[in-house]
Amino acid sequence: MAALRPLVKPKIVKKRTKEFIQHRYVHKFIQSDRYVKFKHNWWKPRGIDNRVHRRFKGQILMPNIGCGSNKKTKHFLVHNVKELEVLLMCNKSYCAEIAHNVSKNPKAIVERATQLAIRVTNPNARLLSKENELTLCACHICVSKTIKLQKKKTGVLGLGKKQKRFSLTTF
């Protein structure tokens, strides 16, 4: 199948790439805009005298409604196979993106997307990690089976506190 090309490719305008940092007096997070050693997750300043809340010049900016991304250039998150059918008629305008919390069947979503000719931005999402987990599990099973076989070959005589090992292998 040929690669899908969009009808119109709108330019993605990133209105703000810098993170919004907090300005708050909380035991551990004291003015994280001034000190690097403090975390800076966003909290809305609610104090009546807070200079960020009052939007003084030269202070940290607060997120506004205008800071969001354009809806046309945003990704369409897909959580299951049924949600792909929304993009059936507009597959040249929009592409799908597999959500991060899809753990059961990302392969099925990718297969259905190829059938419907919908482009997926992250078709390998969680596939590699799943395969790695499966190989790790398989290795763990193999190792545990070999250990069990070795235990069967060498028996342990229970003599109270003193245990003697004997081997069943013939010489």
Give a structural overview.
It is a single chain. The protein is α+β, with helices and mostly antiparallel strands and about 170 residues long. The chain folds into two domains: about 15-70, no CATH class; about 70-140, no CATH class. About 20% of the residues lie in helices and about 10% in strands. It has two helices and four strands, in the order ββααββ. Strands 1-2 form a two-stranded parallel ribbon. β3 and β4 (about 160-165) form a beta hairpin. The longest helix has 27 residues, at about 125-155. The radius of gyration is 29 Å and the shape is flat.
Short description:
With 171 residues, this protein is α+β, with helices and mostly antiparallel strands. The chain has helices at 106-115, 127-153; strands at residues 76-78, 96-98, 154-159, 162-167.
